[in-house]
Here is the input.
Amino acid sequence: MSRPFLKMNGLGNDFVVVEARSAPFAPSAAEVRAIADRERGVGCDQLILIEPPGADQPGVDARVRFWNADGEEVSACGNGTRCVGWLLMQSSGRDEAVIETRAGRLVATRAGERLVSVDMGEPRLAWNEIPLASEQDTRELGVVLYEDASLMAPPGCVSMGNPHVVFFVPEVDAVPIRKAGPAIERHPLFPEQVNVGFAEIRGRDRIRLRVWERGAGLTRACGTGACAALVAAARRDLTDRAATLELDGGELFIEWRDDGHVIMTGPAAVDFVGELP
Here is the structure.
């Protein structure tokens, strides 16, 4: 039988969302790539699966899994978590949803009309938590990752359940992202590959950001990338601990609270309903 799905997006970062609480769904990597194919499939940046929580997970509304367009399962997706959180709150009628992911337990709360806040937990900042292949100061890496004048300033590294490297650049639109992104993504320093952020500081409370996502390429928005950029900037006192992130698809508000947790707030949208072949 064909499987219903929802096409959703968070600031243009788009997803195929499949509900698997009533019937199991176990896509292969090839099937994920076929679904994500924008010419012959549905087309998306990530496939998201909503599964029932485990018996050992009291208080959890759903277990959620994420696959990038290249077929690789990943631990976290900020914009996707926001979309799933909105779906779960709509179905329950409550203003909170607890979601279990490979990156840990996340809590989504209603923040307005189609606005959702997600507590993304604490960033991981140690070199072996990113992870990196060798010991480095993750606040400012001591290696050159790409030979380009705009990328010579030392980048920072943050894990938000998935690895990120963040470059601070004078003008983000001048960076050759489509060339630099894939080269840095696969640099030997990153054994699990890496999401590559290019951040232009526009004020203590505003960052312009573009992200080359591991396994998906240049997307219109990256939620964990926005969280990582704010944390990396605040660690170097380039911004305050709360800022608006300007992405190609719109704006996210990110706050790195005093308790160490990172809160991401932004919209969730449903595009259409369909059935997988």
User: Anything to note?
Assistant: The chain has a mean pLDDT of 95. Residues 3-121+266-276 form a domain with the Diaminopimelate Epimerase; Chain A, domain 1 fold (CATH 3.10.310.10).
